Amino acid sequence: MGQFHGSGMNTRVMYDEKSDNGLVLGGKYLPEELLAEIFCYVDYKSLLNCQLVCKLWKILIQTYVWRKKAEISFGRSLLLYKEVPWHVYYLMCKKKPFERNLVKNHSGECGRDKYWKILSEGGDCWKVENPPVGVPPLPNNELIFEGKQFCFVTSHQSCTKAQIIDLEVEGLTPYILDELQPIIVVSEWYSCRWDCPAIYECAIKLLGKNNSVIDLFHFRDSIEGEKQNQWHQMSHEFKNYGPGLRKISFYHGGADKLFWAGHYGSKMAGACVYVKIPTCQLHKNE
């Protein structure tokens, strides 16, 4: 690898930043710029092992390659603090926590309660419809639905459920959440039948240690008259929420307003928690 010469394979070579240690491969010299470019296309597991080869490789990978690899992965520059720890970029590459939906089973394709905790199911309980009954199809131009037509539907008494998202498990480290505080977008589509008005509600909580509430967004809509028989979207952005965020609770529910037996209540689909890539941070000293 360039750090050993002759037969003295057990001799430890001291790092010298002016030498070609780590830059000679197979007897050929590679400039640091070219070596770094090659590393950018190595898978993240192998790149971890490459850090152990020699000090030059470790410095090159940790100070430049991980960041560049993350930028390639997300297809844009990451204008973050210069001192962002390398392992933050590593987790970005490994778990890709940004700009994907963190809500599982967002429309009921996996059943009415998988990944969700049912809090109440009055009337004839929760149900999943495929396709939605008594309303137009879900919007075809919304990528979240992937061309599928699943939705949750409530009944004639209150039906509510919630899902807790552990942000650290999803790859959003305390450093990202506390120091960079990326914008978090929450949204969901909702509707009700043409022949029966309904109530839709949701509440999204940003949770800290011991599930303390850091921030809260609550939305409630009475779907009646011209609002019926069409899909509406609820959306909200959380910004500048401060340090301590670790989990997000996504709660939704509803009921019909005429107390009809069956499933004439509000319908919901495409529950989404979406963390934007932080790209506008300046250096702390600037």
TrEMBL record:
<dbReference type="Pfam" id="PF12937">
    <property type="entry name" value="F-box-like"/>
</dbReference>
<dbReference type="InterPro" id="IPR007397">
    <property type="entry name" value="F-box-assoc_dom"/>
</dbReference>
<dbReference type="InterPro" id="IPR039752">
    <property type="entry name" value="F-box_only"/>
</dbReference>
<feature type="domain" description="FBA">
    <location>
        <begin position="89"/>
        <end position="277"/>
    </location>
</feature>
<dbReference type="InterPro" id="IPR008979">
    <property type="entry name" value="Galactose-bd-like_sf"/>
</dbReference>
<dbReference type="InterPro" id="IPR036047">
    <property type="entry name" value="F-box-like_dom_sf"/>
</dbReference>
<dbReference type="InterPro" id="IPR001810">
    <property type="entry name" value="F-box_dom"/>
</dbReference>
<dbReference type="GO" id="GO:0031146">
    <property type="term" value="P:SCF-dependent proteasomal ubiquitin-dependent protein catabolic process"/>
</dbReference>
<dbReference type="GO" id="GO:0006516">
    <property type="term" value="P:glycoprotein catabolic process"/>
</dbReference>
<feature type="domain" description="F-box">
    <location>
        <begin position="24"/>
        <end position="69"/>
    </location>
</feature>
<dbReference type="GO" id="GO:0005737">
    <property type="term" value="C:cytoplasm"/>
</dbReference>
<dbReference type="Pfam" id="PF04300">
    <property type="entry name" value="FBA"/>
</dbReference>
<dbReference type="GO" id="GO:0019005">
    <property type="term" value="C:SCF ubiquitin ligase complex"/>
</dbReference>
<dbReference type="GO" id="GO:0036503">
    <property type="term" value="P:ERAD pathway"/>
</dbReference>
<protein>
    <submittedName>
        <fullName>F-box only protein 44</fullName>
    </submittedName>
</protein>
<dbReference type="GO" id="GO:0061630">
    <property type="term" value="F:ubiquitin protein ligase activity"/>
</dbReference>
